[in-house]
Design brief:
Helix content is 30%, strand content 14%. By secondary structure, it is of the alpha/beta class. It has one domain. One of its GO terms (molecular function) is tRNA-uridine aminocarboxypropyltransferase activity.
């Protein structure tokens, strides 16, 4: 028999995260394009981001037929948050800046799946790209990062917004993420966690 699930955060009702999910406003809009393989992932951080930001939208799929409409939103300039050639490092909005705020398009999936999304949605691949400064450290202690600076989708969004909209803090978005990780560590047991994920000196 399957456990009852919260329809909002998609966690078992006994481990519902909704009380920890904030409602944060932002000048930046966030469009999350999630590969279907991520939907059932235990940490589905893109969903947490979409729930915690009032100006965020989450779409799931491989091909987005209405992409033109999604990325050409009046009053915003679309940028793809993904490494690539001619990528600009994000910087803060200037107070006197009269240019349009960003629509931050964030693909969610493994590197391979994201590249597939870009291939299947050429309009996405053609967007100007932005990236985070080097040196970011992930709080995700349960999975070996594919390389230095590799972050979960939620962490990347928090860092991007904190750069763009400094000095505003978006740290409350990380509360349900931390609770998820702590819950998984607790479930596997401290000894198993230390053996598999503890610091290797």
């Amino acid at each position: 028999m399957s456990r009852a699930q919260c329809s909002r955060c998609m966690r078992p009702q006994t481990h519902c995260l909704c009380a920890l999910i904030p409602q944060l406003d932002s000048r930046t809009r966030v469009l999350l394009l999630q590969h279907p393989s991520e939907v059932s992932h235990a940490l589905n951080t893109a969903r947490l981001a979409a729930l915690g930001l009032t100006h965020a939208q989450l779409r799931v799929g491989e091909v987005f037929d209405d992409l033109d409409q999604l990325i050409n939103q009046p009053g915003y300039q679309a940028r793809l948050l993904f490494p690539g050639e001619d990528t600009q490092v994000l910087t803060a909005y200037e107070l006197a800046d009269k240019s349009l705020p960003l629509l931050l398009v964030v693909p969610d999936g493994t590197w391979r799946k994201v590249r597939k999304l870009l291939h299947l949605n050429p309009m996405l691949a053609q967007l100007p790209r932005v990236t985070l400064p080097q040196g970011a450290v992930s709080r995700y202690r349960l999975r070996k990062a594919p390389g230095p600076g590799a972050l979960s989708t939620l962490e990347a969004i928090v860092q991007a917004l904190e750069i763009l909209e400094a000095p505003t803090s978006f740290a409350p978005l990380l509360r349900p993420f931390e609770a998820l990780i702590e819950g998984q560590i607790e479930a596997m047991g401290a000894e198993t966690y230390e053996r598999n994920h503890g610091d290797k000196h």
